[in-house]
Amino acid sequence: MAALNRQRPRPVPQLAQPHISIVIPVYNEQAILHAAMVDLRERLKPLGWSYEVILAENGSKDRTVAIGQELAAKYGDPSDGQVKIISMGEPNYGKALKQGILLARGDLIICDEIDLCDAEFHKRAVDILETGEADLVIGSKLAAGAEDDRPFVRHAASIAYSTLLKVMLGFRGTDTHGLKAFRRQALLDVVQACLIEKDVFASELVIRADRAGVIIKEVPVHIIEKRPPSINLFKRVPNVLKSLAKLTWSIRVRG
Ligand SMILES: Nc1nc2c(ncn2[C@@H]2O[C@H](COP(=O)(O)OP(=O)(O)O)[C@@H](O)[C@H]2O)c(=O)[nH]1
Ligand SMILES: [Mg+2]
C-alpha cells in the first residue's frame, strides 16, 4: 500500500494549444456559414498551420447557431483546425469580436469576416507577424494597391468613415474595419481597455493600439464579399456617429 501511495502522479494530458486563432463574428449567416468554413479549411490545409476557428455569434434569428454547433461537432479535433462557437445576447459585432478575441488561445489572432474568409490575407499577415516586422497587421481596402469590389456607395462610405477617424481621433492609417491580425500578447491590454461596442470597436482597437506604440503595418487587400451585408448601411450611421462621439470624448478629453 505504502509503495502505491508513493507513485508519481500521472501527468495531466495537455490540450493542444493552437498557434493561430481565427476569430469570425457571425450574425444571421445561415446561407453561407457552412460553405464558407469548409472552403476556408480547404484553403488553410496546404499551409499546415496549428489553428482554431472561433465563431462569435450574437442575436441571430436564423439557423446560424445550429450550423455553428454542427461545424463545432464535425471539426472538434484540437490538433486539426478545431471550430468553436460562442453565442450570446443581442446583435453586437464589437462585443462578439471582443469576446472571441478574449477566448482565443493562439499566439497569433486573425480577425476575419464570414463573407470574406480571405486566406491570402491570413498568410501574408502571419508571415509579417512571424518575422516581427509588426505586431498588428491591418488588411486595408483603401490603401494603395487595394481593390474593393463592393458597390461604390459602400466604398465611398468607408473613405468618409476613415476621414472622420482622422479628423476626430488623429487616426494615421487608411482602414480599421474588417481584416486584421495581431500578436495576442502585444494587444491583450489594448483589447481589454476598449470601451466601445458594435461597429466602432474595431476602430477603437486599432487607434488605441497605435497610441500605445504597437507597431502596425497595413497591407492592401482585394475585397470580394460572398453576399451583401444584412444590415443596411444607412441604418448603421446613427450608432456609428454616437460611438465616435463617445470614443473621441474618451480618447481626446479623458486621455
Ligand atoms: N456576432 C455578430 N456578428 C456580426 C454582426 N453584424 C455583422 N456581423 C458579422 O460581421 C461580419 C461582417 O458583417 P457584414 O454584414 O459583411 O458587414 P461589413 O463589415 O460592413 O461588410 C460578418 O461575418 C457578419 O456575420 C452582429 O451584430 N453580431
Ligand atoms: Mg461584409
Structure, explained:
- The protein has a seven-stranded mixed sheet with strand order 3-2-1-4-7-5-8. The chain has a two-stranded parallel sheet with strand order 6-9.
- Helices cover 44% and strands 16% of the residues.
- It has a single domain (17-253), classed as Spore Coat Polysaccharide Biosynthesis Protein SpsA, Chain A (Alpha-Beta Complex).
- Helix 6 (152-169) runs parallel beside helix 9 (233-253).
- With 255 residues, the chain is α/β, with parallel strands linked by helices.
- 40% of the residues are buried.
- Guanosine-5'-diphosphate binds next to strand 1, strand 2 and helix 4.
Task: Give a brief rundown of this model.
It contains nine helices and nine strands. It has about 260 residues and is α/β, with parallel strands linked by helices.
